[in-house]
Amino acid sequence: MRYRRAFLAVLAGAALVLPHPAAVPASDRPFQMQDQDERGGQAEWGGGGGGVSGCRPGTPAPAAPTGRYHGDRAIFGPAELPATAPVGDLLRNYRRFGALDQASFLEQYGNAAKDGWVYPPALGFVVLPDGRPVKFAFELQPGHRIDRFGFPGGSFLAPVGTPYARRALPPQSLNTPSQAPLANYHVYCVVKPFTVDAGPIAPWFAQPGFGIQFKLEQKYLPEAGPALNVTWLLANGYLVEEAPVPGDDPAVAGQVRTHSA
User: Where is the TNT domain (predicted)?
Assistant: First the structure.
């Protein structure tokens, strides 16, 4: 309960001082650290049955790579958004461009060449009016489950099950590369404790944000040096990857349900 209270206190404090962007569509409710997930089952944030510390080591099956893109541009993500669990569950109420049209979205968030994106300041943490990012040191404990969209060479993660809109990621992060699981979505389980910077995610990419993000920082694991990323944590026994629990993801490679948005 201690970590839940800490996260909720940070979210509540940030919400009091920050305006809610009018162009951002609201989800059903803010993401919270809670015992029940949005499907009514036990949340996977804490430990569960399985191997070390309740972890269930496994490798997710690769899915068919994205073959068609929205507007024929990879930066706009797949033409059809994934609907298969576990990714489909994270896309409930998600709108690719928020309340904007495609042209306005690209104008607001695209780079100068309009072939990529401008990412938020302060590494995506909510920023207070005085310019300080809202973040704090937080120790992830064995059995905690975290996830990310993207290859393990990255350094950003989130509590497992955080809705995609709360992550404030661009639509292209839902593309499926070759030999990757659907939307390149990966779930990890903590085996050895380690510390991260944690805090609420700033609204961006026409999404509401205010999920929690975890940022890997070398100051907490100096032995990793500049190579600190998810790959290093896996290689050094801090994390194991998990495959979807049988029954949660009926998809196999090449047989993925989708929906448009």
Answer: 139-241
